[in-house]
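Encode chain A's predicted structure.
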Amino acid sequence: MDEENEAIVTIAKPNEWSVWNKNARLWKIDNDLLNAKLKELREKALKDLAEAKSNFLNQPLEIEKKLVRNTLLRTMKKTEIVCL
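Encoded structure for chain A:
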């Protein structure tokens, strides 16, 4: 409540880990909530990283196969030209 104008003032909650302190009339950071949120974000990041790594390692190697085949064909052609 704004005592000068005698009006009720709403203060938006700044984030998920804040709690209202009735005595100070302020939003205070709750370290337990903050640590829980950080742990959740860390676990999600590690899960996403593991999934990305798995997808990267399990992707088909078509590009490498084509490159090896093309290199082999070029080598064979050069060898044939030299041999002729």
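Strands lie at 18-21, 26-29.
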